[in-house]
Amino acid sequence: ACAPLWSQQCGTSVFSSGRCVQLDQELQLVATMAPTAQRCSTFMDIVVVLDGSNSIYPWEEVQAFLGNVLARFFIGPGQTQVGVLQYGEHLVEEWALGQHPTAQSLLEAARNLTRQEGRETRTAMAIREAWWD
Fold first, then answer.
1. Residue 90's beta-bridge partner residues?
2. Helices (H), ranges, the chain
3. pLDDT beyond 80 at 68
4. How far is the CA of 83 from the CAs of 24, 46, 50, in angstroms?
5. 44-129 has which CATH code?
6. Quick one: DSSP state of residue 59?
7. Residue whose C-alpha is closest to residue 57's, from 85, 88, 102
8. Residue 86 and residue 52: Cα distance in Å, rounded?
């Protein structure tokens, strides 16, 4: 069990998550653990749902925005993985979670992303698909 003011390392970031103690099956204190850094046991998965219809212009600004957002995360196995679903009239998985295992690869993919285009914008369909998959 953990209480606030204890830091742990998640990838290359350190987060305060609590001070930890070990409890038995009856939730009685067994031992207090020293506040040492430990690796985060979970990954952060981000799926970007990106409008690629003709109503979005200029596309270069979308690419720049996506690159700026993604550059703020620590990308890699055991850290943050990013997938992109682009929609307009149809939904296209541009890349799956973990397909780009490095920040450099991910940012290059964002720079080279082409717009799907289309006259319809099916936002609800795209969000539903991202949520179910």
1. none
2. 59-70, 103-111, 123-132
3. yes
4. 40, 6, 10
5. 3.40.50.410
6. H
7. 88
8. 6
- Please, which residues bridge with residue 82 across strands? 46
Is pLDDT at 62 greater than 70 in this prediction? yes
Instruction: Kindly tell me if the per-residue pLDDT of 82 is higher than 60.
Output: yes
Which residues of the chain form CATH 3.40.50.410? Answer: 44-129
Q: Which amino acid is at 127?
A: I
Contact 33, 6 (CB under 8 A): no
How high is the mean pLDDT of the chain? 78
- For residue 21, the model assigns a pLDDT of 65
Pick from 76, 70, 124: which is nearest to 94 by CA? 70
pLDDT digits (tens, 9 = 90+) for 8-49: 555 555 555 455 667 777 767 777 655 444 445 556 788 899
